[in-house]
Specification:
This protein is α/β, with parallel strands linked by helices. The strands form seven sheets. A five-stranded parallel β-sheet has the order 7-3-2-11-20, with helices on one face. A hairpin with an 8-residue loop joins strand 9 and strand 10. Helix 8 crosses helix 9. Bound molecules: flavin-adenine dinucleotide. Flavin-adenine dinucleotide (FAD) binds next to helix 1, helix 4, strand 8 and helix 10. Flavin-adenine dinucleotide binds next to helix 1, helix 4, strand 8 and helix 10.
């Protein structure tokens, strides 16, 4: 069944308009970094964020930020570890930018007020995570790195809130990108703003338009595409979906990282689930099957500390063999005092749910955790669509390839947000980007009721989870196309346009592209594992898959070079 995608969501016409030089969408590490950098370089920045300034995955990050800060460590070694994790699909240029600029960006973050854990002599405490051959992870509050990063960046932004050069609109969802008149082939013109819907109460109401010379998408991940995820509720793939509808290429969408040890809260649990950090296994916790046996012994030389995807798939296999829904994490032998001191956040979250980390086995199962794919960008964060940038988890900058190295994503947010902000500021100053007039993109439009979300998530979970095959993916592609077909319209909206419906439409669009790309990639690599094509196929598939919408709404897949310059 060929079911087209739409170029815009059903939404009321904007009732008000505002303008800026650059709009930043999202306020995680990537959005806040971009906004702070831009403020010093352009006259007017507008930050739009779906929740409060602290919303997004950033605040939930536990482990830390990877950077070659130890005098014994080098960016070259960090580069090697990253390339190995990326399984042949990283952009080496992008990784080089990440690892060479990373240490300086982390120091700047500290200058902005972030306080990382230190040793008694004042040196940063650096730890190691899976896949790193050096101690190079800075962390804060033991396992509360993201909360500290977010606190520091939000404080910086709040300190300049009265500055007329920066406006922050919280509780506002960007529904679509505004684009200029289409080209001769009917493709959307340059991005020149956003439509946004004010969710809460404020000085503005309903749907408005914000016009700008450039837009930076920093909307984070896609966790809500799956039935369970470590990502917060805001991670509905909005950036990927709005970018695609506005003509931008998205890439590496099939590569999804499933975290092996996410608290299992029963078959009915949906949405964000508590993460039990890899660091707990790093400190010596064991994984047990329902007979109390350590099943990772003999499956991998590193046992519980095997790469994340290996552990996640082993757990899924054990669950399948046993007919169970979860396995167990055992850290009782590590001692209550140690556990409470080393993992205060995890200890608290488990205690709230009646689990005593020092005495009880912790039920865990894999859940979606990180998306390597997103809006395809070059080394300066520029998408394929003029006027549009993407940074952080919403982007496919090429630093993660087929699989992310632990703690590289916060670093990506810092490094590429700085790069994109610098480039956007230059483009504004030099007149390379100008304010274009937006035009309406053609019908049909679409709006999917929020009640469909569990169905979409169940399809994604069944077909595009840690193990995939042609039959399951083919079924997912068909079922998702069927749902898209039901809710496309040229008529006035039958479904009431509001946040949950726009988000669910984005979840459906993202799930659809993911399933199509995963079906096309007939090999196994990193975060994409096919039981029917279990080997990595470097002859045919050492390439990036990019997807764009044709003017008629057909999804076109093509191979994109790994290096975009
Ligand atoms: C539990 C957990 C633990 C993690 N631990 C680590 C770790 O230790 N180290 C590491 O490097 N990475 C870690 N990660 C991954 C890392 O946190 C994320 O990849 C990173 O924070 C993403 O940052 P971001 O700025 O791109 O997006 P986010 O921090 O997710 O922010 C996205 C922002 O966009 C806004 N937004 C979304 N859609 C819209 C819209 N339509 N309109 C307006 N605003 C919108 C959201 O409200 C939010 O403000 C972890 C992730 C999770 C969930």
């Amino acid at each position: 069944m060929t079911v087209r995608f739409v170029h815009r969501l059903t939404a009321p016409a904007p009732g008000w308009t505002t303008t800026a030089d650059v709009i930043v969408v999202g306020s995680g590490i990537a959005g806040l970094t971009a906004a702070l950098e831009l403020r010093a370089k352009v006259d007017r920045v507008l930050v739009v964020t779906k929740g409060r300034l602290s919303s997004g995955s950033t605040v939930w990050a536990q482990g830390g930020i990877a950077a070659a800060l130890d005098p014994e460590d080098t960016p070259q070694e960090h580069l090697q570890d990253t390339l190995v994790a990326g399984a042949g699909l990283c952009s080496e240029d992008a990784v080089r930018a990440l690892v060479t600029e990373g240490p300086q960006r982390v120091r700047e973050l500290m200058a902005r007020g972030a306080r990382f854990d230190t040793q008694p002599n004042g040196d940063l405490t650096l730890t190691r995570e899976g896949g790193h051959h050096r101690d190079r992870i800075v962390h804060a509050g033991g396992d509360a790195t993201g909360a500290e990063v977010s606190r520091a960046l939000v404080a910086q932004l709040e300190a300049i809130e009265s500055d007329p050069g920066i406006e922050v609109i919280e509780n506002a969802m960007v529904v679509d990108l505004l684009t200029a008149a289409p080209d001769a082939d009917g493709r959307p013109g340059a991005v020149c703003g956003v439509t946004l819907h004010i969710i809460g109460e404020g000085t503005r109401d309903g749907v408005g338009a914000a016009l700008a010379k450039a837009v930076i998408i920093a909307t984070g991940g896609i966790g809500q595409v799956f039935r369970s995820s470590t990502n917060p509720a805001s991670a509905t793939g909005d950036g990927l979906a709005v970018g695609l509808r506005a003509g931008a290429a998205v890439a590496d969408v099939e590569f999804v990282q499933f975290h092996p040890t996410v608290l299992w809260q029963g078959a009915g649990a949906r949405g964000q689930q508590p993460l039990i950090s890899e660091a707990v296994r790093g400190e010596g916790a064991h994984l047990l099957n329902s007979h109390g046996e350590r099943f990772m012994m003999g499956r991998h030389e590193l046992a519980e500390l095997a790469p994340r995807d290996v552990v996640a798939r082993s757990i899924v296999q054990v669950m399948k063999e046993e007919g169970s829904d979860n396995v167990f994490l055992d850290c009782r032998h590590l001692g209550r005092e140690f556990l409470r001191g080393r993992f205060p956040t995890i200890w608290e979250r488990l205690a709230e749910r009646g689990i005593d980390m020092g005495n009880d086995l912790i039920p865990v199962a894999p859940a979606q955790h990180f998306h390597s794919g997103g809006i395809l960008t070059d080394l300066r964060g520029r998408s394929t669509q003029p006027g549009l940038y993407a940074v952080g988890e919403a982007a496919c900058s090429g630093v993660h390839g087929a699989n992310r190295l632990a703690s590289n994503s916060l670093l990506e947010g810092l490094v590429f947000a700085s790069r994109a902000a610098a480039d956007a500021a230059d483009a504004v100053a030099s007149g390379v980007v100008r304010q274009s007039q937006p035009v309406d993109r053609p019908a049909p439009t679409s709006l999917v009721p929020a009640t469909m979300r569990p169905q979409v998530q169940a399809i994604a979970h069944a077909g595009a989870g840690p193990f995939r095959d042609a039959a399951g993916l083919g079924e997912a592609v068909e079922q998702l196309a069927g749902i898209r077909a039901r809710f496309q319209t040229t008529q006035p909206a039958a479904v009431v346009p509001q946040t949950a419906e726009w988000e669910t439409s984005n979840v459906l669009a993202t799930a659809s592209v993911l399933a199509v790309a995963a079906l096309a990639r007939e090999e196994s690599r990193g975060g994409h594992q096919r039981t029917d094509f279990p080997a990595t196929d470097d002859v045919n598939w050492a390439a990036r898959l990019a997807a764009t919408l044709d003017p008629d709404g057909r999804l076109a897949l093509r191979r994109a070079p790994l290096e975009l310059g």
